[in-house]
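User: My collaborator sent over this chain with a note saying "see what the structure looks like." That's all I know about it. Can you take a look?
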Amino acid sequence: MTALARPSNGRMIGGVCAALAKRFGTSATTMRVIFVLSCLLPGPQFLLYIALWVLLPSEHKTRQAAW
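Assistant: Without extra context I'll predict from the sequence alone. Here is the result:
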């Protein structure tokens, strides 16, 4: 498993689904479909997405910090 960071390529809105897909070894499309289907269930999915968008570092910033 890789570190959880929003990628700079392949993201649609915030890159949260792409980051989760990369972390768990699935495609970003699969993760997006899972997220959309989960929105049909009651719960704080949008709040969780926004929180992850704010809290997860961007892959670009993570690379710069490694230098």
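A starting point for your reply to your collaborator: The helical segments are 16-24, 28-38, 45-55, 59-66.
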